[in-house]
Structures are given as C-alpha cells and as structure tokens.
Amino acid sequence: MKADDPRVRRTRARLRTAVLTLAAEKDVGAITVSEVARCAGVNRATVYLHFPDVDALVTDAMEEAVAQVARAAALCPRDAPRDRTPEPLTVLFGHVAAAAPLYRRMLGPQGSALFVVRMRERLTAELAGRFAGGHRAGGLDDVPTETHAAYLAGALTGVIAHWVTGDPPAPAEEVALAFWRLFRT
C-alpha cells in the first residue's frame, strides 16, 4: 500500500473523520473497530489494513487536529494591536468552536492524556520554530526559546480546555481576544 496513492489517502481521511466523529460522541476508549468501519463505510479489514488498532487511528486523527491548532498559533504576528485578535488566532478558535464536542471530550476530565501531551508538544515545537526564525518579542533573551514556547503552549492548551469545558462556553471571539492579550505579555 502506497501512502501517496489517492485511494489510500481518501480511505485514511474517511477513517480519521469517522473516529473523530465517534470521539465527539463517546469516550475514546469505548470506540470499537467495528464502529469506525461502519461510520467510515468500510469493512473491519480495511481499518486494520491502515491502522493496527483504534488507539493508533485516534492518535493519527488527533495529530491533524493538533497540527492545525499549532500552525494557527505559531502564525500570530507579535506586533498585532492588543485589542484586535490576529486572523490566525481567530481561525484557531473558530476551528476549536466548530469541533467543540471533540475538544471537550479530549481535553475534559475524562479526556485523553495523550491528546493533551501531543497538543502541548506540537504547539511547543511550532512556537519554538517560529521564535527561532525571529518572531519572538524582545526583552526575553534571558529565557530559553524552548521554555518560552512551552510556557505559551501550556497556556493555550489550558485556555482551550477551560473554554470548551465551560458551562456555557464563552463566544470564540471573546476567548480569542482574551488569549491574545495574555499571549502578548
């Protein structure tokens, strides 16, 4: 099976979508291969052809969601005005709002520790890379780049978790602006 084959890419995308749909509805540990196959419109053998088990599929599917969050966070321009949320952050919080049930389940009290760790690690790596490219606020030369990136990644992960598990959750625009104001400090 070749990873660049369009049929393989389509099947894997359907499997990712199916498992994320199921994860938004129920505990990840309770999802079965049969449910994923049924939701994706494939047979069980096809699931096993692409992933050894549901955990591997969930990890793969979450990686794309985490990558999207990380890319958006890393693109925030440091010089944007304090009272105007940068476009990448608006997109990021819009993405999370659109997938709120999934993020609530993954980041809530019964969520996946793996998801939290992967999200924080990916955010840290994206931000550290951005900082290494010169996109870091001045006056922080005495703080290691990785530490600064980890600090902001943990903060963003915490804000998103707090937001999606709130009752009721605040509007995405409000949380994005509040985070931006904190992010700039």
Automatic annotation (TrEMBL):
Coiled-coil parts of chain: none
PROSITE patterns: HTH_TETR_2
Organism domain of life: Bacteria
Keywords tagged on the record: DNA-binding
The keyword Membrane belongs to this UniProt entry's keyword annotation: no
GO molecular function, one term: DNA binding
One Pfam assignment: TetR_N
Binding region for DNA: 32-51
Statement: the UniProt record of this protein carries the keyword DNA-binding: yes
Domain HTH tetR-type intervals: 9-69
PANTHER family on file: ACREF/ENVCD OPERON REPRESSOR-RELATED, ACREF_ENVCD OPERON REPRESSOR-RELATED
Name of the protein this chain belongs to: AcrR family transcriptional regulator
